[in-house]
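Provenance

Sequences were taken from public entries as deposited. Structures were produced by running a predictor on each sequence independently, with no templates supplied. The record for TerC/Alx family metal homeostasis membrane protein from Kineosporia babensis is shown for reference.
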Amino acid sequence: MDVSAGWWIATIALVLGITTVDLVLNRGQTHITIQHATRWVLFYVAVALAFGAAILIGFGPSYGGQFVAGWLTEYSLSADNLFVFLVLMTRFSVPEYLQLRVLTIGILMALVLRAGLIAVGAAAIHQFSWVFFIFAAFLLYTAWNLMRSKHEDDTDVEDEEPPAIVGFIGRVVPSTPVWHGGKPFIKQNHRWIATPMLITMLAIGVTDVLFALDSIPAIFGLTQEPFLVITANAFALMGLRQLFFVVRDLLDKLRHLDTGLSVILAFIGVKLIMEAFHENSLPFLNGGEPIHAVPAVPTWASLGFIVAVLITVTITSTLANRRDARAAALAGEVKIKDDEPTRAA
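Predicted structure for TerC/Alx family metal homeostasis membrane protein:
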């Protein structure tokens, strides 16, 4: 994929322009309604799909499909990030009128840090094809842990412990537990110290990158083009702020999402192993020659699989919620009937 400087400049200008418009239009927002956030989420989804269409026209359907599959995977895996963001917001008691600003700066930091990880990953893959095996093993391990934790974790958000990195940041950076509006620093006893505003932004940025350690290998399993990897991450993160306000009250309703994500990660892990065989250079495997007998998974199949899994978990979660609601209603009716003789007596 030969990406000209013009494409890079236009893409950067698009991302910066949309982000600036978003910040200007949402400046001064003290309460984000779910309707307002939903409109922005739909806008960012439309922008990402339009960019995918531009990739399709400019570089062909294969690269267009790789971008959409990568963006959709990154966006889906962001659900875990949103849960961590919610834990951090609760942990630091972030005032509602500051939540959008905290998310904005934290996610911008995360985008810069992710770009560094992507550059390292792309360079490693270009030099050493066996890195695919490492990425695949990590994704399969993550998928297993995600599936296992789904069946073991019944902790409420309020009781959830924040990531250990949060405590580390609090110990390293001199800070005060008292909020001072949107100020990241205040002067106290003749020295500058950080406020919860700065600590929360740093925590969001760093923890997002830690959680990206599974999503970045995942997208490399769908495309090895740095331009597509970076832009898919950028468009996924751009809509993440508004998505937070949409799903913060809905995460529990998508009860099968973790199962779906584990299936997607396992699928991409297997796909990476197959890709590693195709790009094989290890001397103890087929004499260091590529193994073309292993079938390749086309982009359309990857995209179709990801979409099918997400649709399936949405449907099964909805049906499970309705089943539980009916069971609860039936239990209530039974209790009322059991109480009637007592009242009559």
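Residues 5-344 form one domain.
The chain has a mean pLDDT of 78.
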